[in-house]
Amino acid sequence: MGGRPGRGAAVAMPDENDAIEVRVRARLDSMGVTYDVLPCDPEFADTAAFCEHYGFAPADSANTIVVAARKEPGVACACVALATTRLDVNHMVCELLGVRKASFAPAEATRELSGMLIGGVTPFGLPEALPVYVDAAVMQRDSVILGGGSRSMKLRLAPSALSRLPSARVVEGLANPFAVSS
Fold first, then answer.
1. Is the pTM of the predicted complex or chain greater than 0.70?
2. Mind spelling out the 3-state secondary structure of the chain?
3. How confident is the model at residue 10, as a pLDDT?
4. What domains, with CATH codes, occur in the chain?
5. Per-residue pLDDT tens for 79-120?
């Protein structure tokens, strides 16, 4: 899904990872959210690799993707969508942001906006000013696995925890299922 360490993506230092993970856990605890921490080898932090390596179903995994307007500086959001879906950036996200064109933020911009690396981005560690849009399909799962703030940690929790975030909004049709090739 994005840059991997060693391929031009920024690499978080262990102390930086610890600080991010502590911040995310503190946020979840302050919200009264029940969650499981799933340690993760950073080499398997990208969702497809994580699911395959650790034996989790992609339908139970959700990606938090930072999206930025192409021509309007400072206009961005985070979107949460199941790993089995494709975010509708060209229509739905652009409409939500009020812009004509937007795209997935590159690794450097994702880090700048979120303080996290791709593969570890979680809505529970984002700045409160950054809107979070959650695809309605995420809310239908019993639990979801999300990034934990670093590439070394994932979180498993009830999707209802997402609706506790002040900046979160559930959006029907934010993402569409991947087309199944026959």
1. yes
2. CCCCECCCECCCCHHHHHHHHHHHHHHHHHCCCCEEEEECCHHHCCHHHHHHHHCCCHHHEEEEEEEEECCCCCCEEEEEEECCEEECHHHHHHHHHCCCCEEECCHHHHHHHHCCCCCCCCHHHCCCCCCEEEEHHHHHCCCEEEECCCCCEEEEECHHHHHHCCCEEEECCCEEECCCCC
3. 45
4. 34-173 (3.90.960.10)
5. 999 999 999 999 999 999 999 999 999 999 999 999 999 999
